[in-house]
């Protein structure tokens, strides 16, 4: 394999970099990188970038994660939210419980509120919560800003991933990753060690090594952006990964790679919430539950058969949708 990095190591460094970092402030990272600092003053950093920089590891975060029975990760009760500017209500009483080790799929017609729900979970400033609660690993998420939510272990892959001109993929990931290690009192990884850590993850997503030296998402095709999102998730980790249409625009091989990567990051301790329009993703990533959203609410929850029914009969198969 042709390497852009002067390294041929493939073994992840030891000790495992996946560790908790409770007090890490993602904004600090901005002050370690001249490129990021110039481009994004801390209060203007896009939420997606903050999330990618701040997301916590899946393996050791949270409370009481050592027991055998799955813990509840996310509990959403009667959540309502409006567009911050216009006050137009979008979410109208969403209820959802996600336990460790589960894969939840949210489907629904265009405009039914799926992306809004995902963005409200990570604290996107376009929306205002007007009622209900979100508890993540026992903590009230509504009291947390987006960075804190990321620190708590929430990762979101947006439907339309943003570009970060002037910042290469590998620099971005290495800065985020090393910021964690510093916070943990661990030595930073050198470029060669970091390459050794991410190399197997490149293979997991089947992403060409050239993409490491390209600016984040700049000039990437739609499918390449989606692949890159999953790569970021594989490198940075998460307790709950929210993937908004990670399958859209993917050719059949890319879909298989992305699905393989999602399966690869799943453990008994973390969970995935996937928004999709197509059953084909579920051929590869097996859902624990499929939810149908309509009019800003989850109107039906079932097993994979719900998605099959929709594929065959459309949303008319769901009486409330
Ligand atoms: N920031 C915003 N400003 C104005 N309208 C918004 C905003 N965010 C969401 N909406 C509106 O809220 C509704 C729900 O949007 P959302 O993006 O959540 O739908 P969706 O279920 O993800 O749809 P799709 O399947 O097409 O992605 C839509 O009518 C959308 O136009
Ligand atoms: Mg959407």
From TrEMBL:
Q: Name one GO molecular function term.
A: ATP binding
Signal peptide limits: none
Give yes or no: UniProt keyword Nucleus.
no
Recite the UniProt keywords alphabetically: ATP-binding, Nucleotide-binding
Q: Record's PROSITE patterns?
A: ABC_TRANSPORTER_2
Q: Can you give the residue ranges of the ABC transporter domain?
A: 74-320
Q: Which superkingdom heads the taxonomic lineage of this protein's source?
A: Eukaryota
Annotated protein name in UniProt: ABC transporter domain-containing protein
This chain's source organism reads: Rhododendron griersonianum
Lineage of origin: Eukaryota, Viridiplantae, Streptophyta, Embryophyta, Tracheophyta
């Amino acid at each position: 394999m042709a390497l852009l990095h002067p390294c041929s190591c493939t073994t992840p460094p030891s000790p495992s970099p996946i560790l908790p970092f409770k007090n890490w402030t993602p904004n600090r990272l901005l002050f370690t990188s001249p490129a990021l600092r110039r481009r994004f003053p801390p209060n203007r950093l896009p939420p997606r970038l903050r999330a990618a920089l701040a997301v916590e590891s899946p393996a050791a975060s949270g409370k009481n994660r050592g027991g055998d029975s799955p813990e509840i990760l996310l509990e959403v009760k009667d959540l309502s939210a409006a567009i911050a500017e216009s006050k137009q209500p979008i979410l109208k009483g969403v209820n959802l419980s996600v336990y460790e080790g589960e894969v939840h799929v949210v489907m629904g017609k265009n405009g039914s509120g799926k992306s809004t729900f995902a963005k409200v979970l990570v604290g996107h400033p376009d929306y205002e919560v007007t009622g209900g609660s979100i508890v993540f690993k026992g903590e009230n998420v509504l009291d947390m800003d987006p960075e804190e939510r990321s620190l708590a272990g929430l990762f979101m892959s947006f439907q339309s991933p943003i570009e970060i001109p002037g910042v290469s993929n590998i620099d971005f990931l290495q800065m985020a990753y090393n910021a964690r290690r510093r916070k943990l009192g661990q030595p930073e990884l050198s470029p060669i060690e970091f390459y050794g850590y991410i190399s197997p993850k490149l293979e997991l997503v089947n992403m060409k090594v050239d993409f490491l030296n390209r600016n984040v998402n700049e000039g990437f095709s739609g499918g390449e952006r989606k692949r890159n999102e999953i790569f970021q998730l594989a490198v940075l980790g998460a307790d709950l990964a929210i993937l908004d249409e990670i399958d859209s625009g993917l050719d059949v091989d890319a879909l298989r790679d992305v699905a393989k990567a999602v399966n690869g990051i799943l453990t008994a301790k973390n969970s995935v919430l996937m928004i999709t329009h197509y059953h084909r993703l579920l051929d590869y990533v097996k859902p624990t539950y499929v939810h149908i959203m309509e009019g800003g609410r989850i109107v039906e929850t079932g097993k994979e058969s719900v998605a099959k029914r929709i594929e065959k009969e459309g949303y008319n198969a769901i009486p409330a949708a």
